Automatic annotation (TrEMBL):
Transmembrane segments: none annotated. SUPFAM superfamilies: Winged helix' DNA-binding domain. Keywords: DNA-binding. This is Transcriptional regulator, BadM/Rrf2 family. The keyword Calcium does not apply. One of its GO terms (molecular function) is DNA binding.
Length: 137
C-alpha cells in the first residue's frame, strides 16, 4: 500500500513552518529548509507546486520569501497532501468491479477524515507539546 511520499512529508513540514510564522511576514527558502531540515533544492520544487495550487504566496527579490496564502485554520492537511501527492486512493482502472470503486471511495473519505486537521491544529498541538516538555525538564 502506498504511503505519503517524502514530497508530501516535506511539504507538510514546510507548511507547518510557514504556519508558525503566520502574520509575522514571509520566510526565506533557506530559513524554511533549515528549520524543517529539507534540502533546499528539493524544497524549491515543493514550494513551486504549493504556490501553483494557491496554498502559498511568493515574494520576489533579494528580500523575498514565502507566506501562507490563507490563514492556518483555513488550510487542511488533506489539501496540502492532495496538492503534492495528487488524489489520494484514486484507482483509475475502469475494469474494477463496482463494489471496489465504492470501497476506494470509502477509503478516500476515511483519509479525508484522518487528515481533516488544519495547520492551526498542528501549531496548537505543537505548542501544547512544547509546554508539556517544559514541565519535564
Amino acid at each position: 500500500m502506498a504511503g505519503i511520499s517524502t514530497k508530501g512529508s516535506y511539504g507538510l513540514a514546510a507548511m507547518y513552518e510557514l504556519a508558525l510564522h503566520y502574520g509575522q511576514g514571509h520566510l526565506q527558502i533557506r530559513d524554511i529548509a533549515e528549520k524543517a531540515n529539507i534540502p533546499q533544492n528539493y524544497l524549491e520544487q515543493i514550494l513551486a507546486t504549493l504556490r501553483k495550487e494557491g496554498l502559498i504566496q511568493s515574494i520576489r527579490g533579494a528580500g523575498g520569501g514565502y507566506l501562507l496564502a490563507k490563514a492556518p485554520n483555513a488550510i487542511a492537511v488533506f489539501e496540502i497532501l492532495v496538492a503534492l501527492e495528487g488524489e489520494l486512493c484514486n484507482p483509475t482502472d475502469e475494469r474494477l468491479q463496482p463494489i471496489l470503486h465504492l470501497y476506494w471511495d470509502r477509503i478516500r473519505e476515511d483519509m479525508k477524515n484522518v487528515f481533516h486537521e488544519t495547520l492551526q491544529d498542528l501549531v496548537d498541538q505543537g505548542n501544547a507539546l512544547n509546554q508539556q516538555s517544559m514541565y519535564f525538564i
